[in-house]
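> forwarded from #structure-qc
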């Protein structure tokens, strides 16, 4: 098959690790021909170019700035995306007949590009639903269903529904995702919606005790404490103000060490907290080189997930899989609508509580500390659950079984 993948991720090779590149490599190994359109924002200074790999071609196209810019530029760049993508398809892939179009949310604004290829080539379309927008923006107060922001919400809600309408199949991250989409979009046939979870290539990213000691020494992390790590985006969806409230309660707990490695729009809030309180049992770090980041995660004892309690949509953070690759048990502190906590608890590889109750967060941390000798069984359960449910082979089979050739 000729497969077109449309994304906002900026990558130059399929050899990078990630839920999308791992899946595309699986398709390439199965002798499918992969074509990718991956943008580079104006700030990078990169020009449009074509990169070729075995069974794959990556078209890097120049777009306006979307991240780390003002709302006006972000809005204009987002709205014009689909026209830039259509122009690129016409120019560079005019002679390629696509059998399947894969695409993910975010964004929802590639709808016309998907529709163009579907009509031109009679291609089948499969949406990898990773974000439910614009409702997530409403949940966090960035959009409203009343007032002047109502018009913006309505515009994006129409785009969302059109994207669902042109998708032959919609792969959701979890059962809660699937149920939400069907409940709030009655026009979608249940036969078109299925669970296609976040999946990655199966790699054992755990490290031995000597390497763990070396990494902890390198980054000045105590050797004999239980280290809780939060790695990844530090933005509004993660509910950073509540995380800071939890950190304040844990400043004097000498049995634990909390490591936060990441970046995002709310990083400055954490930086202010660390500058003010200078906690001796905590450390805040910006993003690390990938190899060091992976080893750093593996040198810790428990991975943490935080989500804002205001969410009504069921998120399912992909960073969970990185923790599982490193054989870490997971502490999830989230809203009650996501089922990521249920998955973790039912899989016997971690703990969950709601992200509006500091008492329960402290209680669970104390539970981990009191059972530190039993963490080994949680670690193995974490990795085994990953092998059973979240490998790229799982996602590949789900998608390929739906495609009619």
């Amino acid at each position: 098959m000729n497969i077109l993948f449309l994304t906002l991720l900026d990558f130059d090779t399929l050899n990078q690790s990630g839920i999308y590149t791992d899946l595309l490599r699986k398709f390439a190994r199965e002798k499918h021909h992969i074509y990718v359109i991956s943008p580079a924002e104006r700030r990078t200074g990169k020009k449009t170019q074509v990169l070729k790999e075995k069974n794959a071609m990556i078209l890097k196209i120049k777009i306006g700035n979307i991240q780390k810019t003002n709302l006006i530029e972000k809005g204009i760049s987002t709205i014009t995306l689909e026209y830039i993508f259509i122009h690129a398809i016409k120019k560079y892939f005019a002679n390629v007949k696509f059998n399947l179009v894969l695409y993910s949310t975010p964004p929802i604004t590639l709808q016309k590009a998907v529709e163009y290829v579907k009509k031109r080539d009679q291609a089948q379309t499969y949406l990898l639903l990773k974000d439910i927008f614009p409702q997530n923006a409403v949940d966090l107060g960035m959009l409203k269903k009343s007032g002047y922001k109502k018009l913006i919400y309505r515009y994006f809600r129409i785009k969302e529904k059109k994207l669902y309408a042109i998708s032959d199949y919609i792969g959701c991250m979890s059962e809660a995702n699937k149920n939400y989409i069907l409940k709030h979009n009655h026009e979608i046939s249940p036969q078109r919606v299925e669970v296609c979870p976040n999946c990655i290539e199966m790699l054992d990213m755990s490290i031995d005790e000597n390497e763990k000691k070396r990494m902890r020494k390198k980054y000045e992390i105590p050797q004999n404490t239980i280290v809780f790590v939060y790695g990844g985006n530090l933005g509004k969806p993660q509910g950073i103000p509540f995380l800071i409230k939890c950190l304040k309660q844990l400043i004097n707990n000498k049995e634990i060490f909390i490591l936060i490695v990441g970046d995002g729009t709310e990083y400055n809030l954490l930086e202010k907290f660390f500058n003010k309180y200078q906690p001796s049992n905590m450390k805040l770090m910006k993003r690390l080189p990938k190899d060091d980041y992976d080893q750093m995660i593996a040198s810790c004892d428990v991975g943490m997930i935080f989500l804002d309690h205001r969410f009504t949509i069921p998120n399912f953070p992909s960073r969970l899989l990185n923790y599982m690759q490193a054989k870490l048990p997971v502490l999830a502190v989230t809203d009650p609508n996501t089922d990521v906590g249920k998955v973790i608890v039912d899989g016997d590889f971690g703990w969950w509580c709601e992200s509006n109750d500091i008492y329960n967060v402290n209680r669970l941390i104390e539970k981990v500390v009191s059972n530190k000798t039993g963490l080994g069984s949680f670690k193995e359960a974490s990795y085994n659950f990953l092998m059973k449910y979240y490998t790229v082979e799982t996602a590949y089979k789900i998608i390929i079984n739906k495609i009619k050739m």
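QC bot note: The chain has two domains: 2-200+390-400, 209-389. The chain has a mean pLDDT of 92.
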